[in-house]
Design brief:
By secondary structure, the protein is α/β, with parallel strands linked by helices. The protein has a single domain, classed as Rossmann fold. 37% of the residues lie in helices and 25% in strands. It contains ten helices and twelve strands. The protein has a six-stranded mixed β-sheet with strand order 6-9-10-3-11-12, sandwiched between helices. The longest helix has 15 residues. It is globular and about 50 Å long. Bound molecules: adenosine-5'-diphosphate and magnesium ion (MG).
């Protein structure tokens, strides 16, 4: 069971009690300037710096990440592409502290702080958000309550008063409009009965509520039809404005056409084997990963 599923289970059983979130990004929607967490980043600074990261599955000992090196600066959008099973999702989950994996070597800093010395919720407080490839359903918890809890956790972490339901509605309404999302989302239970596209939109809404400095979106485009993809891409483009860092995991060029990453990386067997601009994605579309990585 993933740590998200664990926190979801505790949420579902105690819907009116603020849960201990373990999901990255689930704690507080702070900007660094007013955050209680000490950060040193300034404009143009490095947000995420990963060096020679290796990690294994905790239970089986199988090594999945074999030496990932990646640097993302403020304002940059990066994409990682790669075959199924190359380790993309594992990389993102290791970054946010998923308990299924064990870091065996290398380093990772986020905004100058040692990522692996922080609890998952601390990583979230410093502004790291992960949108999961398969968002889970949380029956019995209304979406609006869930979003408000996320937001209030982050407000608490920066010493701000919590928003009551009415105040939160005021905070959320412009975001819904900005993201072109239907307010009927709010009354429903978290992801329950949502279509694939609705779940992805809901992830983007969480991202908007968190106002995280760095967002990792794992296959935000999978299972979307053309219209939903366009809306999600437009919403992501709104959210990446300013100094925000963005890491997209995707199989398809069509998302990259809409989001225009600054760098595209190819992951193979647990490490990044190639980095370039968006033309890499076009080559992939033509010849597949073999053509790209053939020496
Ligand atoms: P990608 O996202 O690139 O498709 P993943 O990171 O999901 O790849 O998986 C990489 C490899 O690690 C796959 O072979 C997958 O089966 C394995 N793996 C990932 N997580 C686990 C886990 N919790 N237990 C066992 N194997 C895992
Ligand atoms: Mg994956």
């Amino acid at each position: 069971m993933s740590h998200t599923a664990v926190s979801a289970a505790s949420l579902a059983s105690k819907p009116r009690v603020a849960p201990k979130f373990t999901r990255a990004g689930a704690r507080g929607c702070a900007h660094s300037r007013s955050s209680a967490v000490k950060v040193t980043a300034a404009k143009g600074d490095v947000l995420l710096e990963v060096k020679d990261l290796t990690a294994k599955v905790a239970e089986t000992g199988e090594e999945i990440l074999t030496g990932v090196t990646l640097t993302i600066k403020e304002g940059e959008t990066h994409a990682i592409m790669g075959k199924n099973g190359s380790g993309k999702s594992t990389f993102t989950k290791v970054l946010v502290g998923h308990p299924s994996y064990e870091v065996t070597g290398g380093t990772a800093t986020f905004r100058g702080q040692d990522l692996f010395a922080m609890e998952p919720e601390e990583r979230a407080r410093t502004g790291l958000f992960l949108s999961f490839q398969s968002p889970i359903e949380v029956p019995g918890v209304s979406n609006t309550d869930f979003l408000r809890m996320m937001c209030n956790e982050r407000r608490k972490s920066r010493g701000e008063p919590e928003l009551d339901p009415l105040e939160f509605y005021g905070f959320l309404t412009p975001k819904l409009e900005q993201l072109n999302m239907d307010p009927s989302f709010l009354a429903r239970n978290v992801n329950e009965g949502f279509s694939g596209g609705e779940k992805k939109r809901n992830e983007i809404l969480q991202l908007a509520v968190m106002e995280s400095e760095m967002s990792i979106l794992d296959e935000i485009d999978s299972g979307l039809d053309v219209d939903a993809l366009r809306d999600v891409a437009a919403a992501v483009n709104v959210l990446k404005e300013g100094d925000k860092g963005l890491l997209l995991i995707t199989h398809y060029q069509r998302l990259l056409d809409a989001i225009h990453p600054d760098f595209v990386h190819v992951m193979q067997k647990g490490k990044i084997v190639q980095t370039g601009d968006v033309s890499i994605a076009a080559k992939l579309e033509e010849g597949g990963f073999e053509a790209l990585t053939a020496k």
